[in-house]
Amino acid sequence: MAEIRLTFKEMCARFDVTPRTLRYYEYIELLQPERDGRSRFYSTRECARMTLIMRGRKFGIKLEEIRQWLKIYENEGTKVQMSAFVEMADHQLVELEEQAEQLSDAIKELRTLREETVEKIA
Hints:
mainly alpha
């Protein structure tokens, strides 16, 4: 696989994030681009990390959890990281299922309230 070297603007465009978001991810040490003066360049490694960050955010995983999870790979390797992912995913699945139940209840309650209001209007 050829080594990628994206500029700051290219990275923002590829992952559809704002410059502020990308700078923040660097600030909290999720990403460490190569620097050449004021320019930043993102390697294949940084693109892979950004893919994982975006996937984690899609599932509602907190940035600090993602940061710690990425650090596991650096310190302990793939197998430990995968085990940590399974644990993190299990926790997030419980959270998402609870949110889905709360949304379902809110939808039912709103429909009932709407129907009662329509009946009062008629």
